[in-house]
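Predict the assembly for these two chains.
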Amino acid sequence: MMKRRDLIPVAAIGAVGVYAATRQEKHRVLPAQPSTVAVVKAANYEADLTGQMARGIAECGLDVRGKRVLLKPNLVEFDAATCINTDARVVAAAVEVFERMGAAEVLIGEGPGHRRDTWDLAEQAGYRSIIPNFDRRFTDLNRDDVGLVKSFIDADDMYFPACVLRADLIVSLAKMKTHHWAGATLSMKNFFGIVPGNVYGWPKNQLHFYGINESIIALHRVFGPKSFAVVDGIVGMEGNGPIQGSPKPVGVLVMGGDLVAVDSTCCRIMGLKPEKLSYLTDASYGNLTTDRIQQRGETIIQVTQSFQVLPAFHHLVGS
Amino acid sequence: MDTSALSSRRDFLRQTQNADGGWGYFPGKRSWLEPTLYATLALHGDAASAKSFALIQSWALPAGGWRTSADVPDANWTSALCLTVYIARSVRDKAFDQGLVRVLRTVGAEGNFLMEIAQFTNPAMVEFDNRVQGWPWRPNNASWVEPTVHSVVALKHVARLPWESSNLLSIRARAGTAERMLIDRRCDDGGWNYGNSRVWNTVLPSYPETTGIALLGLQNRPAAELKPSLAIAEKYWRETQSPLAKAWLLIALRNFGITVSNTTEPATVKPSRDVLVAALQCLGEPDGGHQFLKTEGIPS
């Protein structure tokens, strides 16, 4: 008998809109308390990122003392004409903030989806020159040793990098972007980069066959409980993201410990409807609606910018 | 005779070999099949290579193929590379035959019924000819450039072995289809992206590393067909700062008989501690072993 996941490649390659329109709501566990999401302004990358990030994190009540922190930026591709990656200055600020907060160790890890020379990519994106002690901190997640996570999706186990499994706290340092398959890529989608290429290839095509939404949800279920999100929305990307879109200045950092709440807030800032993104509505836990999110810092209406989307995602905007 | 660059890289590989005979992607890490295979080729004729090949043989799986690493007991695209290494060492055993069967039975999923429907209903999403299939990174996934090239190179080596004509036909058919797939996926600039050339009506750029790799799978195509591809490969060779891309481009250009003058490493090179890059850089040197990835046409 054909299972639902047998049909997933159809959604992955050719029917995202149809899939999104016909999917069924999943049961989601609501946290006992509302989630705190901080939105802080940073007009550009020369602003006081460390101070603003520290202020936002403090609003969320995060304690990292004694913890092994892994920063997971979104390092995908480099094109000097646009803004694909989490800016190196945001990553550098995060290093400083988490060290000041008393983390036992602040490491950085990323496994780009299709470029195999991660170190060269880090060089081009300015990571090696801007981020203090980058070479010592960094692990190419595509080529780390691995450990097994049982029952990742259904009965399928999946391997993940050792440094991800060892981390006490994963900080998803995502970029605020539209995405040509997923609609929007934020702190949850950013976890695609922790799937190891040395097992699954470049890109991590296995995730497309599981289903992009299903994979985002599974990654969130496994790693979300030990995660915190900081989304670089200082300059986001609209249109044909996550690589070939256009820069979209928004001037914010968005952060919080509930990744569903953070990504929902980012969607609202981008002019997208989070309740139309199935990986948010179907996430196994987290707060999605504004009445369950305690907004700190800037209000959404103060910082909203309407992001352009591809025609396949017009259902995410408008009435 | 070793050049100093070749000699130092080979020394690095010898010094970083794990006790089990394999290599991790970086020194001190667990052994993985992929870096172990390239290092085995780069140290061909060396005692370290014999030791690593013994490990590779011990990783053969009963159902065909080779385990991915010390910790991952499943086969993936690296099994095709194993065939190339076995042939370089003139070893043909049961594991080789079973591995070959596995490679021949593995095919990109883009040709299956559901994927065809998906592409038919929305052809602009990913534009390619799904009738020409190559190889995936893992079974039941779609075809991508790099795993396809490794399989094509392996099959062309395999085709030089004595075979019954029916077996040779199936080998030739798969390799020929995969060559057409690589041509179909070629970008407008003559090089290759990692998989497709167009998504959502948007032309994708090629990349240096995938262009070098793709050319290895097309070594026996007519020269005129590859003229723009070799031109951009030479351009990439001059301009890229990526040690990995430079290594693949050098291997490819040498196997096309193209002399490249500047073999100086870029100043930004960080990981001479990168085992896979070091092994590929060895293979790219004049006597470094690039010929193990050189192919001839399949006899008819």
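The interface with chain B takes residues 6-7, 9-15, 114-117, 119-120, 123-124, 128, 135, 140, 143-147, 159, 180, 198-203, 205-206, 208-209, 240, 244, 310, 312 of chain A (CB under 8 Å). Residues 88-100 of chain A form the longest helix (13 residues).
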